[in-house]
Amino acid sequence: MSASALEPDQQPSTVSRPRPHLVLVPTGRDAVGRGRHAQPRMRLTRRGRFVIAVLVALVLGALAVAVGGRLAAASERPRSIVVKAGQTLSEIAARELPQLPISEGVVELQVANGMSSSGVLAGQTLFIPSP
């Protein structure tokens, strides 16, 4: 098809559209200060400050309890006894660990003192585990 065969409303227009004006976009601190989408500073209400203060107090309290418990456990000195002539490990377990059955008390004493048997000697020092 030739250009002359086209109808007038189908012919390409030679009229140029006006170009939009260029606008400078601010950068850096100016962009944050003037921008339409700049985030406003977060503000805490009185209730929000109270909630944060309570949470901080709870965390500090939990830490204090945990540290205090460890310090108390570390400060306890293990009790020790010296075996007298004629004493057996069962007698010592019954007297020193009355809250446990004798067989369990003997095992606790063996574990606490690194013993492989239930035999003890007079003058031997035994550590008594805490219950």
UniProtKB/TrEMBL annotation:
<keyword id="KW-0472">Membrane</keyword>
<feature type="transmembrane region" description="Helical">
    <location>
        <begin position="50"/>
        <end position="73"/>
    </location>
</feature>
<dbReference type="InterPro" id="IPR036779">
    <property type="entry name" value="LysM_dom_sf"/>
</dbReference>
<dbReference type="Pfam" id="PF01476">
    <property type="entry name" value="LysM"/>
</dbReference>
<dbReference type="InterPro" id="IPR018392">
    <property type="entry name" value="LysM"/>
</dbReference>
<protein>
    <submittedName>
        <fullName>Peptidoglycan-binding protein</fullName>
    </submittedName>
</protein>
<feature type="region of interest" description="Disordered">
    <location>
        <begin position="1"/>
        <end position="21"/>
    </location>
</feature>
<keyword id="KW-0812">Transmembrane</keyword>
<keyword id="KW-1133">Transmembrane helix</keyword>
<feature type="domain" description="LysM">
    <location>
        <begin position="80"/>
        <end position="129"/>
    </location>
</feature>
